[in-house]
Amino acid sequence: MLSLRTIRARSWRSIPLARTIATSETSAPHSPPQRHGFLPGAPASAITTKLHFFNSVLEQSQIPTYRVLDGSGNIVEGAVEPEIDEAFARRLYHTMNLLPVLDTLLYNVQRQGKISFYMTTHGEEASVVGSAAALGSRDEVLGQYREMGVLLWRDYPLSSVMGQCFSNENDDSTKGRQMPVHFGSPEHHFHTISSPLATQIPQAAGVAYALKRDTERRGKDCAICYFGEGAASEGDFHAGLGMASVLGGPLIFFCRNNGFAISTPTTDQYAGDGIAARGPAYGMDTVRVDGNDVLAVLGAVREARRRAVTGGKAVLVEAMTYRVGHHSTSDDSYAYRARQEVEDWKKIDNPLHRMRRYLETKGWWDAAAEEALKDSQKKIVMEAFRAAENTPKPVLDNIFTDVWDEMPWILKEQKEELREILRKYGDVWEPYKTERVKFRGNGVLEP
Amino acid sequence: MPSLSAPQILRALASRNLASRSILLHSRRYTEAAIEPPPAGGHSPTIAHSPILRTTRDSALKTPGIVWGSDADHEDGDKTGRDTRKMNMYQAVRDAMSTALANDESAVVFGEDVAFGGVFRCSMGLSEEFGRERVFNTPLTEQGIVGFGIGLASMGHTAIAEIQFSDYIYPAFDQIVNEAAKFRYRSGGNFNVGGLTIRTPSMTVGHGGLYHSQSPEGFFMGAAGLKIVVPRSPIQAKGLLLSSIQDRNPVIFLEPKILYRSSVEQVPTSSYTIPLSKAEILTPGTDLTVLSYGTPLYTARTAMSYLAEPPASIEHLVPKPLRSAKIELIDLRTIMPWDVKTVVESVNKTGRLVVVHEAGKIGGVGSEIASTVTEKCFLKLQAPVKRVTGWDTPVALAYEKFYTPDAIRILDAMVETLTY
């Protein structure tokens, strides 16, 4: 039996011989059978004489889904409730409920043409808010776009939510530069969303490595990277998991598997056992969780976070849920799925309903509390909306700033070119005239 | 033509396939035995003896535009006490990274095969000196490398990423163009990746074929938010790389790989920078401006000597009156944002411009410069702006001699422009 050290010390030329012994296909070895091969690519791989192809993480079955609450909000027999007190539970439910209130208003507002675009979180409230609640307040969040609930959990102001969606001067996320729902806030440790899918996944590996190298934060904070099951088909998913698993750093990969990437069902997205099956392939601790069960998500992500922070490594969580809403305001999902199927999901497996029933069972909630919450949330959301409608867009100069740290001659010249165009046409050409008055300072470029 | 030694060819070309692991093992043995591997790019006589190289200590310390770092020994700004050391370009790159790692605890160096010293030796000994946490190999994924670097830089760290050949930067194109370049703008200035520098060997090497020869700078020129830098020599490489690392914007630093060993200068050992977005006039002139960057600068210098004293075989093709023409040779150094002022001043003086680069003509750097110069110098131009570039073909192995802009093509362009 060769020790690993001996094996590594062998020159590369000895490998073809080793391969002959390992496969036993050509001639019978004179040495006694090896328990392990010694190819550098898989040093602990046992040698077998049985020809056996395999095709799943678990033989003959799929990876199980961790659940704590059943469909009616009762604790499943044998399940352990995560540690949760009344105040925390109520805050969870408040935040989960605020999401659809905002979603419904902003969805309708988009339908009226007041904002250009919107994406709801309908159906995924437990996945998003439950995971957010399991994090530390300084954990770095890299999202895809359907994770506004994380910001709401961290008390991101509604004026900023509205400001971003209305591209007004309260858009402290992007200065009016990005499409709605592309939030970002260093103060809330929420990295600015960008549209290209999965690009945040290898970036998260870098963020986690930075946390590992930072003596102030090492062992305290982690990063979490959200993405949908569709984004997991991008090359950056593989790149990111590969980088994170080899290089280390505290990181939770959180996949929202909601069954659809726009119109594409998961059957057209992958042929394996979801996203969770890929975690072990990268040597990653992995769990699949019921994404409509906020307690299961909370418990799973708390444990994932513990492993990530104490182990200084990446962990994968796949939350199984259902995208109840359309993909975005540019999408009519009834073109590719039955309305009834969606209605059924809302009734049978509603994350908000399950949480509400749990709270009622505990004696922490009742109909009066529900009504009071709905009223108060509607009121604050409407107030924020009305304020946003009357807030001007930022100064027009923002079109040219922040491209580089300092404005090079190229942009200085182009800014002058725009100034000259506006001087000549800005007051007489109707499309310019009506647009520029929406900006702070009537769309006059500063010198 | 320079030639690669057998181990270098293996290392450079085979590193793209699964054999890279065996190369890693071989190379570790090199490192342990402290054997200096044979030359990479060979020695082009044109480059080795070029007058644009600063081969004495005195001339090195007088490098125009050099900005000395704040090392304690030289607070008085006295240049005369500084040391220089003979270095080729890969050693100067290594020296710059060593300086960056020593001065900035957050700085890390990473990429494919960088831990053992890199396939071009640019990170030799750095992992031993600074530890594997700071100088490390990554899995073989360019999009992963750049994405990872963006993540590190967004946390305020200094990320020095290597892409093994610029020919393999395209898998990271999305991360560079959609992410790194737009990071500051799209976040309203809340986040930036100013600490990111992507180093990558580029340009032809004599026998690199399609995928070890490319000059991709033109593809990145329109990605507002990036800086693109190309050094011509060891002194320039160290100073410009340190500027790039310190610059608060993501920088693509393209190192002409044929110069790694063939360009040798006395390089100041202390910390210094050379400013970005600043071209350098290598030889002043009044009759024609020749603008280039990287390897072709040496070729252009040779072409200038042919113009003054044509070899007998081509003497009849170079009209006598042109031989006293004063050519202004400019090294652009930073491709984006480029130094329009120096270039326009020069062309307004000479009235003629030839731009030389190895990348193809269409959509190349020369197109951008030619159109801007035409806009800004229209009344002063006495001839059309001429572009001497690689052809709009891939770089084909056996045909490289006829692909790369050589001294004769540059000479011909100078003659055509001067006699227009």
UniProtKB/TrEMBL annotation, chain A:
Catalysed reactions listed for this entry: N(6)-[(R)-lipoyl]-L-lysyl-[protein] + 3-methyl-2-oxobutanoate + H(+) = N(6)-[(R)-S(8)-2-methylpropanoyldihydrolipoyl]-L-lysyl-[protein] + CO2
Task: Provide the family line.
Answer: Belongs to the BCKDHA family.
Keyword Acetylation in the entry? The reply is no
**The enzyme's E.C. designation:** 1.2.4.4
Q: GO MF annotations for this entry?
A: branched-chain 2-oxo acid dehydrogenase activity
What's its top-level EC category?
Answer: oxidoreductase
Which BP terms from GO are recorded?
Answer: branched-chain amino acid catabolic process
Q: What does this protein do?
A: The branched-chain alpha-keto dehydrogenase complex catalyzes the overall conversion of alpha-keto acids to acyl-CoA and CO(2). It contains multiple copies of three enzymatic components: branched-chain alpha-keto acid decarboxylase (E1), lipoamide acyltransferase (E2) and lipoamide dehydrogenase (E3).
Q: What are the UniProt keywords, alphabetically?
A: Oxidoreductase, Thiamine pyrophosphate
One Pfam short name: E1_dh
Record domain Dehydrogenase E1 component: where: 94-394
SUPFAM superfamilies listed in its UniProt record: Thiamin diphosphate-binding fold (THDP-binding)
Name of the protein? 2-oxoisovalerate dehydrogenase subunit alpha
The answer to whether keyword Oxidoreductase applies is yes
Read off the InterPro entries from this record.
Answer: Alpha-ketoacid_DH_E1_comp, DH_E1, THDP-binding
Name the cofactor(s).
thiamine diphosphate
From TrEMBL, chain B:
Q: Which GO terms describe its biological process?
A: branched-chain amino acid catabolic process; generation of precursor metabolites and energy; response to nutrient
Gene3D superfamilies per the UniProt record, alphabetical: 3.40.50.920, 3.40.50.970
Question: What reaction is this protein's catalytic activity?
Answer: N(6)-[(R)-lipoyl]-L-lysyl-[protein] + 3-methyl-2-oxobutanoate + H(+) = N(6)-[(R)-S(8)-2-methylpropanoyldihydrolipoyl]-L-lysyl-[protein] + CO2
Q: Which PANTHER family match?
A: 2-OXOISOVALERATE DEHYDROGENASE SUBUNIT BETA, MITOCHONDRIAL (PTHR42980:SF1), 2-OXOISOVALERATE DEHYDROGENASE SUBUNIT BETA-RELATED (PTHR42980)
User: Is the keyword Oxidoreductase assigned to this protein?
Assistant: yes
Needed cofactors, names only, are:
thiamine diphosphate
Residues of the Transketolase-like pyrimidine-binding domain: 87-262
Provenance organism = Botryobasidium botryosum (strain FD-172 SS1)
Annotated Gene Ontology MF terms? Answer: branched-chain 2-oxo acid dehydrogenase activity
What protein am I looking at? 3-methyl-2-oxobutanoate dehydrogenase (2-methylpropanoyl-transferring)
Which EC class, in a word?
oxidoreductase
Q: Which UniProt keywords apply?
A: Oxidoreductase
- Region entry Disordered, spans: 64-83
> Which Pfam families is this protein grouped with?
Transket_pyr, Transketolase_C
Write down the SMART domains for this protein, in alphabetical order. Transket_pyr (SM00861)
Q: What is its EC number?
A: 1.2.4.4
Record bears the keyword Oxidoreductase: yes
